[in-house]
Amino acid sequence: MNKLQNFTKGIIKENPVLVLVLGTCPTLATSTNVMSALGMGAAATVVLLCSNIVISALRKIIPDKVRIPCFIVLIAGFVTMVQLLVKAFAPALDASLGIYLPLIVVNCIILGRAEMFAQKNKVIDSAIDGLGMGAGFTLALVAMATIREVFGNGTFLGMPIPVLSENHISILTMAPGGFFVFGLLIAVVNRFFKNKPRKKSFGCAACPQAEICGGSCSGEEVNND
Amino acid sequence: MTKLIIILLSAVFINNYVLSRFLGICPFLGVSKKLDSATGMSLAVIFVMMISTAVTYPIQMYLLIPNHLEYLQTIVFILVIAALVQLVEITLKRFIPSLHKSLGVYLPLITTNCAVLGVTILNIDEGYTFLEAMVNSLGSGLGFFLAMVMFSGVRSKLEGADIPKSFKGLPITLIAASITSLSFMGFGGVIENLFA
Question: Rounded to whole angstroms, how far apart are CA atoms A108 and A44?
Answer without folding.
Answer: 11
